[in-house]
Design a protein that fits this description.
GO terms for molecular function: (3S)-3-hydroxyacyl-CoA dehydrogenase (NAD+) activity; 17-beta-hydroxysteroid dehydrogenase (NAD+) activity; 3alpha,7alpha,12alpha-trihydroxy-5beta-cholest-24-enoyl-CoA hydratase activity; enoyl-CoA hydratase activity. By secondary structure, this protein is an alpha+beta fold. It is built from six helices and ten strands.
Amino acid sequence: MINHEKLLNYAIPEVRQRVTPRDAVLYALSIGFGQDPMEERQIPFVSTHRGPLVVPAMAVVLGHPGFWLGRPDTGVDAVKLVHGEQEIELHAPIPAEGEVIGQTRVTGIVDKGEGKGALLYSEKRLTDAASGALLAVTRSTTFLRGDGGFGGPSGPVRPPNPMPESAPDITLDLPTRPEQAFYYRLNGDDNPLHTEPEVAARAGFPRPILHGLCTLGVVTHALLRELCGYDPARLRALSLRFSAPVFPGETIRTEIWRDGAFRARVVERDIIVVNNGKAEIAA
């Protein structure tokens, strides 16, 4: 069972990471860039000969502390946790080469009650090791499905971004690959829920699910293409809520409004997998 004070003050080690152009290319490939070799605008993200440009969403995997919630001393039922929400706030371009520092901390825990799970809020500050400059702040909500009823506070709960009532202005379909979770885990997220059928079954899924942050990467690709003209410097921030899992091999349809609102659905099952999305785009 969760010990509220212990988990709230859990010491998550600082992570120093040497970033190379190969890392930037691997990240872009792992979220689906390069599937169309004739799309000239994608090539700088997946080629060291013409870049690489860095997909801004790479901020979520740099300086990542790994699957720390899987450690026994957290008290968390790690098999049943899922990614609930994600926010990225960009302060400077993510470098394709250099050293970065990730400092992650728990910022809040909400007890939804016995049988209803819990919410864990965390924040990572990503800085440039040489200059100390802040590159990005990422904030996550993890839904601990098996851990409610430990006597913790019932709030505050972050409200979702409101969604427009009108039809989206833009839709874009991007496919995922059946083996995509195996590629994505090379970015440092090795939760076996995404690659081991037995673990997925214990968590209540018919097969391994795609990483939520991989889904975020696919959606970020859609935003970069449709709102930023593939210019990563124009994406200043984004936030979203994960509403259902994606299975590797499914097609993600991102629905976008001109004001930066967005959501995404899986075409094959016509189910919304990302909701309450909001992107901040520079002119």
